[in-house]
Amino acid sequence: MGSLEEVHVPQNGINHPGVTALATAMQHNPQLRVLNLNDNTFTKKGAIAMAQALKHLRSVQVINFGDCLVRSEGAIAIAEAITEGLPILKELNLSFGEITGEAALLVAQSVEGKATLEKLDLNGNCLGEEGCDAVREVMDGLNMGDLLGSLSDDEGEPEEDDDEDEDDEEEEDDDVEEEDSSVNQVSSPLSVPRPPDASSFLCFPSPDKLLKLGTKRALLFEQQVDVADAGKTAEAFLKISSVYNEEDKDVKSAVLDSIDAILRKAFANPSFQGYNFISSLLVMLGLLKSEDKVKPVRVVPGHLQTLEYVVRQDYFPQDHIALLGTLSDCRLTHHIGTKFPKDIANMLQIAQCTHVLLLSGCCI
Question: How far apart, in Å, are the Cα atoms of 140 and each of 22, 111, 144, 148?
């Protein structure tokens, strides 16, 4: 088999081991134009394997992975393959794949420069209202707004429990997983190494991804994060600090260097709204309530340990430390104080005293 031009196997109940096997076979069909696997079950394992195959195919015009549960990590891998190749792509269908807004943005960005593109379908995923708007904005910015399909069936942002269920499903069947790993190892040496990508880390933070950004990671984050926006700066702070590990010197240094670069740049900007940055942090940590519907992050020790470090730096305004005194209110510390008492105690020592905090749009 090496002369296939079209593959149509929709609704065949193919799971990720079968998808991975197909992906390996597809690499040997350079004239492949249409790849339709609609309504099979990729999961991220199958989607990543298929993305590797796409890197070897330059004639593909139609990709239909709708209803395939490619999930966010799979969508990111596919976006990478599209960015690096597929110059004559016409249609891309990743609908109903349990893809989040951040991953969908990367997919939208990946079609930049694809002059032959006729349709991008991301309907029925988990973008949420803001995610849908962001995808539309990206496509409009590429002058491709009319090529984006309807997003009317979007499922909204996923709950944390949904994410955990997906992870559990991915971990089932260890024997099959080992087989998949062996297949992927055969194809991986042929793949093009992915360049450092700060946006990929911010979508799915991990210590390994942070270290792979290399010595220029601080500069990459400076370029990626819009420090003029206090809310986005706070969000980036929490994502980077979430991988902080006191026991791993390399990761710890990488986190603190990256945070230093972002916040030093932010606070050096006269127009940066530092108080909004602090209030956004407290809202995202679940310590303050906001009139806007903001879903708190899962608090981890790294958030507080990094914050403890930050307030000691010369770029951090001393008057902002007073805001952190609100942590001494028992109503705020109750749900995390029992979990991270040492971190809270350190923060209280830094804040020095209790202050009354009044924030626009927020209430204790």
Answer: 35, 12, 6, 9
- CB contact set of 155 (below 8 Å; sequence gap of 6+): 98, 124, 125, 126
Contact 78, 103 (CB under 8 A): no
Round to whole Å and give the CA distance between 133 and 262. Answer: 26
- Indicate if 214 and 128 belong to the same structural domain: no
Say if pTM beats, i.e. exceeds, 0.70: no
The answer as to whether 265 is a domain residue is yes
Q: By mean pLDDT, which of 55-59, 150-154, 355-359 is the weakest?
A: 355-359
pLDDT of residue 130: 87
Hey, what long-range contacts does 139-143 have (CB within 8 A, 24 or more apart)?
Answer: 139/108, 142/108, 142/111, 142/112
Task: Tell me the pLDDT tens digit for each residue of 112-162.
Answer: 989 999 999 999 999 988 889 999 999 999 999 999 999 988 888 876 554
- Is residue 342 included in any domain, yes or no? yes
- Number of domains composing the chain: 2
